[in-house]
Every structure is written in C-alpha cells, then in structure tokens.
Amino acid sequence: MVGVTTIQYINRSIQARLLVLSGLFFGILAGALSFALISIESVEDMAESLNLNSLPAARILDDASVQLAHLRAAEARLSPGKASPEFAQAQGQLRQLRNAYSTLDVSDDERSLAGTFDKALKAYVDAYNAWTADRLPVQAEQAADASERLPRLGQAATSALSALKSAAVAQAKSNADAAEKTAEITLDLMVGLGAIGLILTAGIIWHLKKRLSDPLVSITRGLASLAGGRTDIAVPEFDRADEIGALAKAFQVFRESTMARQRAEASLAEQNHRFDAALVNLPHGMCMFDAQERLILCNAQYSRMYNLPADLIAPGTPLDRILDYRASVGNGPADPATYFDVVVLAQSKGTIASTKIDMTDGRTIRITHNPMTDGGYVATHEDVTESVRAEAKIAHMAGHDALTGLPNRYLLHEKIAESLARAAYNEQVAVLCLDLDQFKIVNDTLGHPIGDLLLKAVADRLRGCVPEADILARLGGDEFVIVQASTGWPEQIEALARNITDNVSQPFDLDGHQVVVSTSIGVALGPDDAADADRLLKNADMALYRAKADGRGTYRFFEAEMDARAQQRRQLELDLRRGLVSNEFRLYYQPVVDTQTRKIIGFEALLRWMHPDRGIVSPAEFIPLAEEIGAIIPLGEWVIRQACADAATWSKDVKVAVNLSAVQFKSRTLVHKVASALADSGLSPQRLEMEITESVLLANSEATLAALYDLKRLGVRIAMDDFGTGYSSLSYLRSFPFDKIKIDRSFVMELGTRDGASAIVRTVANLGASLGMITTAEGVETAEQFAQVREEGCTEVQGYYFSPPRPAGEVMEMLERELASAA
Predict the structure, then answer these.
(1) Is the pLDDT of residue 655 over 90?
(2) Contact present, 555 and 525 (Cβ < 8 Å)
(3) How confident is the model at residue 167 (pLDDT cuts 50, 70, 90)?
(4) CA-closest candidate to residue 474, choices 407, 419, 402, 417
(5) SS3 of the chain: helix, strand, coil, percent, to 5
(6) From 15-19, 435-439, 561-565, 717-721, the region with the lowest mean pLDDT
(7) What is the 3-state secondary structure (H, E, C) of 205-224?
C-alpha cells in the first residue's frame, strides 16, 4: 500500500512539474518569436530605406561628379565672349541631377552639404556667364576678374560635391551596417530560441532523471550491494521530504545496521587474529590454566622452552603431568615449592605476581602469574638466564679489578666495614697495604704490557700467601690490600707480612723477561688505630710510606707519630706552593776549583728555600716533595733562568752548573726553556752545564737521551752527577758522550778510612781521562782529601774545603778576591 501511494504521489508530482515546465517553455518561445518578427520588420524597413534613398543618392552624386568633370574640361577650352555648347549641356545635366537629388529623403548633414554645393555651383556658373558674355568696354575689368575666379570656383564646386558624395556614401554604409547587424541579431535569436528549446527539453529530462530515476536506481543498487555484503555505496537523498527521501532514510538505517554488524564481526576477527599473532610471535612462553589447573591454551614458545610433546599441550592437560614430564627430561624447577609460591602469591593478592626460578638445566626463568576472576590464571615464562648472568657480571665488575679479578676499592671498603662490625671483643682487624718497589722502572723499561703481567703474577702469589678467610684486594696501580679479620696477635700479622715479602721478592719470568721486585707493607689495626674503614686504610698507607722510607722490602706497623708526620708533609706541600708564588726561593753558588791551578773555574747553582717561619729549608726535604707534586717543573725553569742571568754578570771564563730532575725531562719544553734562558740572558751555551743523575736516564731513556742530544747541540755541557752510586753508571757512559763525571761525595769521604776508596776514585778518574771527560770530586772538606783526589787524577774539586755555598751576591766578591790574590 505504501509503495502504491508513493508511486501515485511521484506521478502527480511529475505531471505538475511537466505542466509548469511546458508553460514556461511555450511562454519563452512565444516571446522569442515576437521579438524575431519585430526584428525582421525592422530589417525590411532598413533595406527599403537603403533601396529608396541611399542607393539612388549615391548614383545621382556619381553622375553629378561626371557632369562636373565635363564642366571643368569645357572650362579649359573657353575663350572670352564665346559660349561653349559643351559647358551649357553639362550645366543642364547637373541641374536635372540636382532636382532629382532634392526629391530624395536624405539626412540633415547631406541636405546641408547639398546646399553648399548649390552655392558653389551657382558661383561657378555665374563666373562662366560673365566670362563668355558680350562685353562693353566698361565691363572689361569685370570679365578679367571672372576669368581669374572661374578655376577657383570650379575647384570649390568640385570639393563641395566630393564632400556631399562622401557623406552620402557614409550614410549608405551606416544603413547597410545597421541592416546587417539587425539581420545577425535576428539569426542569433532564432538559433537561441532553438537552443532554449533544446535546453528546456534536456532540463526536463535531467530533472526527471535527477529527482526520480537516479535516486531510485541508487537505492536499488544500494540494496543489491547490501544484499551482497557491500556497504561502500552511499545514498545522498535521505534529506528529502518526499517518498524518495523516506526510501533513502530507510536504506540508510539498513546500511548503518549492516555496517555496525560487519564492524563488530571485523573487530572480533581482528582481535582473534591479534591474539593468535601474539601467541605465535610472543618471545616468551605463555600459557592459560583454569581453576582446576588444566591447560586451556599455550603458545609455541612455551612448548619449545620446555620441549613439550604434542599430547602435553592439548587443552585439558593437567599441570602436574606437564611438571612431571619436565622433571623427567631435566628442565623442571630446581625447587618445585618456589614454583607454586608465585601462584599462591598472585591469587592471594588478586594481582600480578612475578619471580625468578632456577631450573635444573641451569637456566633462570622469570614466571609472571596474572590471576583470572574464575580462579584460573595466565602465566608468562621468560628466559632471563643471560640477563641474570650479565647482571651478576656487572655486579662483579663493579666490585672487582678487571686486570687481576681481585676486589677493588669499593668492595674492599665494604668488607673492611663488615669486618670491623663483626670483630668480637679482644679481636682486631688487620689492614695490610702493599706497594711494589721498582714497579715504575719495570713499566718504563719493559713497557706496560709486562707491567700488567707482573701485577697479575703478584696477585697470584698473594693469593697463595693469604688464607681463604682473609680478603685480598687491589686498589689500583701497584697497590694491594689484605684484610685479616679476627686476628688476635701481632705475631700472626708479622708472619704473614714476612711470607709476602719473601714470596714477592722471588724472580718473575714474564714473557721471556726475568723481573725482580720487592714489596713494602704498612699495617694498621682496627679498632685500635681506627674504627672506620677510611681512617684504617689511611693509617695503613702512612705505615707503608714509613716502610719505604726505611729501605723498602720490609713492613711497618702504624704509629701515632706517623699521622703527625703526614700532617707536617701536607703543610709543607701547601707552604711549597705558596713559596713558588711568593718568590721565597734563592740560588746559592758553590765554587768548582781546578785541581792544578786552584782557581775557580765555575759554580754549581744550589737551590735554597727561605721559609718565612722555618728559615732555610734543606733541599733534601723539599726537592723530593716538589718532584712528587709536579712543582719541580716551574721551580726548575726559574732556577735555569736565574742561574743564566747571574752567570752572565761574571767573568767570561767562569761556568755555571744547574741540576736537572728526572721529572723535568718529562716536560717536552725543557730544551726550549733552556734555549730561551740563554737567549734572554746572553750567556754563552758553552758556559752552562746541566748535571743529571742516573735516575734521569732510568725514567725514560730514549726520550731523555733525545733531549740530552738536543741540549748538547745547543752547546750546553752535560755532566753525570753522583757517579758510582747507581746500578748501570758505566752503561750510561757508553750511551751518551758526557762532558764531565762527578764522583759522589760518599767515595771522597771514605778516602783514608776505607780500603778500596782510593782505587775507585783512581779508576773513575782514569776512565774519564780515557773517554775525554772531566772528572770532578764532590764533597772535598779537608786538605788531605784534596791532595788525594788530585793525586788520583781528578781534574776538578768541589766542597767545603774551598767554600760552602754562598748567596749570589757574594760570588763577585769571591772572584774579585781571587783575582786580587793572583795579581
């Protein structure tokens, strides 16, 4: 019934629209035809006007032009008093043509120009008559005037006729253009009327198609698409108020319902797909059990993790069967109780619970249980074996030395604190700080790889000396620490220290090199010496320095006075740094005397520290400290500059000697600083001597030798100081061409008191002579010592027998006194 009503409504709607459109069409068509008829009548009127007026006027004016030309031609043949038949004939023709033109309906402009032509033609004819008439004598003057005006008047008549003709032609063209335009408009109107008819017809068809046919086709196709499962066709007619709109709205509701159902189905399918993908691609094992601990589902990774057969991963498999199988193949939980603890914990908390469980095959699995509301649970199994091992390795590395594997400073600190906390009444915790003697020499001479091998070998020997209950650690460099807990008697500690020094002093065979080192040990006891780890380590370190100061290769227990000496050393360091800034250092000079002439041939510059509170500080006290803290570099540079500046004021043949520290040779600017000091002072390089000890060459022989050769190329003289006190003095004489050998004062002091001292001095003097080197005996304090060293062949002497070191201001006085005594 609804469909019939809808169709009837659509038919009535179409009929009404057709009537309206037809009336509109015929009304427009009637108006267009009326306009066309009026336009055609206007064209006919314009054509008639053109035929009746414009065209005859043009022909008349053309004929008039011909007759006027005849008049002008007859004018040329006129003679006074004689009339021309040709002129009279042409004049008659012109009069007829003018009368015919006056009957035409012409424009005002043409009528005005025609009047002008009439006047010009009359003047021209009057002049002609005057020229050709019989003349009386009294008219002779008028005739002559007429003869002169006749050509001019003829030209004026010609010009007036030409203007009239041009106006007639223009008017005829204008009428023709108007007629043509009107005809074009009429033609366009007829074409337009036909186009309007076509457009109206097409419009009616389009309107019916758009408003009726297309919506019905669209709705029909949409229904067919929905029936086929497609929902991508939209019907835009649902906003209409007629039956088509009602049908469209019904279709829209049906389509949205279908789309909602499809979306729900697609969402469910996507969720199932994602769940399947998650199960398949999850890197961890995943399983789901019900409240009776029967398997609901699991992923492939869960099966692979425990190598489960197909019958054990089927839904409904009890958990006990799976665990029994895993136990039989060796990958079950090491502690089954722990495995079920996480299940109980998750259920009791009602939330996720996780724990790491060790397996019998050595793996560690993190199991996370998530309980479900029905009593079941979902669990993930993640193999964290590698991460657990990595964490353990990182934790071990954080507390252990990478080279030796021993505990490092941080772990040691914890162990000492724990030992102090556990120490019972009358028990002590002994901390032994060890330092390898001569380790730096091994590194410098054999290289750091051998040094590392030595440290590892020392660590192995120490492990053999230290009981398992004690702690052995490496602080860094060549420093080791032993913590002996619950020790009751110092004798036990002394026995351990002696065992360590004896074992470490045995030769090491390292990659083909035999290395011999010793160790110094400092011991502090807690809680007597200190009750905290930091202080106990510090006190053991101070005892270590005492052991080194007492000859190395031994051990010392901490004493309270050591702390006071450490504080004094710290204060001395602060004073030394301040002294550098405050210019508290001075140079003293001790003369060097020629053994034959007893004349002063040079001075050795000796550094003195004028401390504001302590007075003069011995170089033996502050020079080692300056070397240790690096202050010797700027201090040594100042000494070189000051010595060169002072020597530049002395006699030209007097030299100056400056001592160089091994630390100064580590500076790459040493040679440059020496050259700069020489240039600034103007001192000749041959007057400057640089004294070095064997320790300089031990530190870095190749780099040191290169610097020495650079200094020698400058012209500076190089002396070997304290010769005979080291291990390889003779080998160094072969490696570098020294200019001077200075025999150590210890040999000179033993002259006459110890057998062999004279032979040593004599041998060194002869060695120097054979090598072309000067030999200087240091520490000559008596006349007997001077006589002996001169007799043994030494070329120079130095000592208190001649003069102690003097301030720089007294050097000139000494030289002047010597010069005065020689005179």
Answers:
(1) yes
(2) no
(3) confident
(4) 407
(5) 60, 15, 20
(6) 15-19
(7) HHHHHHHHHHHHHHHHHHHH
* Cis status, amide bond into 527, omega within 30 of 0: yes
Given a cut of 80, whether residue 129 has pLDDT beyond it is no
Give the N- to C-terminal CA distance of the chain in Å, as an integer: 159
What is the spatial distance between Cα 279 and Cα 296, in angstroms, rounded to a whole number? 13
Report the amino acid identity of residue 123. Answer: A
pLDDT score, position 5: 47
User: Each residue of 463-510: pLDDT tens digit?
Assistant: 999 888 789 999 888 999 999 876 556 778 888 899 999 999 999 999
Give the number of other CB atoms < 10 A from CB of residue 759: 10
Q: How far apart are CA 220 and CA 233, in angstroms?
A: 11
Q: Where does residue 229 fall: left (phi above 0), alpha (psi -120 to 50 degrees), or beta otherwise?
A: left
Residue 536 CA to chain centroid, in angstroms?
48
Q: What is the DSSP letter of 615?
A: E
Residue 462: count other Cβ atoms within 10 Å of its Cβ. 22
The pLDDT assigned to 55 comes to: 61
CA–CA separation, 364 and 386 (whole Å): 8
Question: Distance between CA 420 and CA 412 in Å, rounded?
Answer: 12
Q: Check pLDDT > 70 for residue 170.
A: yes
**Residue 25 vs residues 12, 14, 524, 692: alpha-carbon distances, Å:** 20, 16, 124, 128
Residue 593 neighbours by CB under 8 Å, 6+ apart: 599, 600, 601, 796, 797, 798, 802
With 0.90 as the threshold, say if the pTM is over it.
no
124-133: long-range contacts, CB 8 A cutoff, minimum separation 24: 124/71, 124/150, 124/153, 124/154, 124/156, 124/157, 125/91, 127/153, 128/75, 128/78, 128/87, 128/91, 131/78, 131/80, 132/78, 132/80, 132/81, 132/82, 132/83, 132/84, 133/81
Q: Are 382 and 355 in contact (CB under 8 A)?
A: no
Q: Do 233 and 225 contact (CB within 8 A), yes or no?
A: yes
Please name the helix (run of DSSP H) or strand (run of DSSP E) that holds residue 368, with its range, or none.
strand 364-371
Burial class for 515, CB neighbours closer than 10 Å (0-12, 13-18, 19+): buried
pLDDT in tens, 63-98: 777 777 777 777 766 666 666 777 777 777 777 777
Residue at token pair 């072309």: 772
Instruction: Report how many helices (DSSP H) and strands (DSSP E) the chain contains, helices first.
Output: 27, 22
Choice between 44 and 449, residue whose per-residue pLDDT is larger? 449
Cα 343 from Cα 372, distance rounded (Å): 12
Q: Measure the CA–CA gap between 61 and 42, rounded to whole angstroms.
A: 27
pLDDT at 10: 45
Q: What is the pLDDT of residue 710?
A: 94
Residue 33 tokens, joined: 């035809």
Please give, one letter per residue, the 3-state secondary structure of 80-140: CCECCHHHHHHHHHHHHHHHHHHCCCCCHHHHHHHHHHHHHHHHHHHHHHHHHCCCCHHHH
DSSP state of 400: B
Per-residue pLDDT at 2: 39
Look at residues 427, 433, 413 and name the one whose alpha carbon lies nearest to residue 557: 433
Element holding 727 (H helix, E strand): none
Q: Which two tokens stand for residue 711?
A: 């200094």
Q: What's the per-residue H, E or C state across 286-341?
A: EEEECCCCEEEEECHHHHHHHCCCHHHCCCCCEHHHHHHHHHHHCCCECCHHHHHH
Instruction: Report whether 412 contacts 384 (CB < 8 A).
Output: no
Evaluate if residue 116 carries a pLDDT over 70. Answer: yes
What is the longest distance spanned by two Cα atoms in the chain? 192
Residue 231's φ and ψ, nearest 5 degrees, are -130, 15
The average pLDDT across 27-32 equals 60
pLDDT for 756 equals 80
Q: Which two tokens stand for residue 295?
A: 């398997």
Angle at 385 between CA 381 and CA 388, to 5 degrees: 115
What per-residue string of b and e applies to 77-113 under the rule 16 or more CB within 10 Å gives b?
ebeeeeebeebeebbebbeebbeebeebebbeebeeb
